[in-house]
Amino acid sequence: QVQLVESGGGLVQAGGSLRLSCVASGRTFSTYPMGWFRQAPGKEREVVAAISGSGKTTYYPDSVKGRFTISRDNAKITVYLQMNSLKPEDTAVYYCAARRAYYRDTSYYTRGSLYNYWGQGTQVTVSS
């Protein structure tokens, strides 16, 4: 069983930055593709970043491309989401997710249904 704990959310003004962290338990974390998702009130959950188990490939939707960066530190069993130039429309609860893998998966995954483990979420609020 893998547990994920997010931190780093908060209130920030438009144009500001935040860095979210997701610490995982479990010794096999280094093989797991990871993703960051968000869900705003009344909206569907959407992916904002994904990274392969190898860490070599990443994905961003157009809405955050150039502003958000996902990275992982397997030694610290942590995945990060650096968010710059934040906009009010980035306001949401942000979730970290992990997909179980028994080898160093070189793919990333953008569909939430493909992830096995989820964190509890951290609120990000961007004021105008």
Show the helix and strand layout.
Elements: E1 4-7, E2 10-13, E3 18-24, E4 34-39, E5 46-51, E6 58-59, E7 68-73, E8 78-83, E9 92-98, E10 117-118, E11 122-127
Parallel strand pairs: 2-11
Antiparallel strand pairs: 1-3, 3-8, 4-5, 4-9, 5-6, 7-8, 9-10, 9-11
Overview of the molecule:
- This protein has 128 residues and is mainly beta.
- Helices cover 0% and strands 44% of the residues.
- It contains no helices and eleven strands.
- Strand 4 and strand 5 form a beta hairpin.
List its salient traits:
seven-stranded mixed beta sheet, four-stranded antiparallel beta sheet, mainly beta, 11 strands
Total number of helices: 0
Span from first to last CA? 40 Å
Describe the global form: globular
One letter per element, helices H and strands E, the order comes to EEEEEEEEEEE
* Count of β-strands: 11
In short:
The chain has about 130 residues and is mainly β. Helix content is about 0%, strand content about 45%. It is globular, with a radius of gyration of 14 Å.
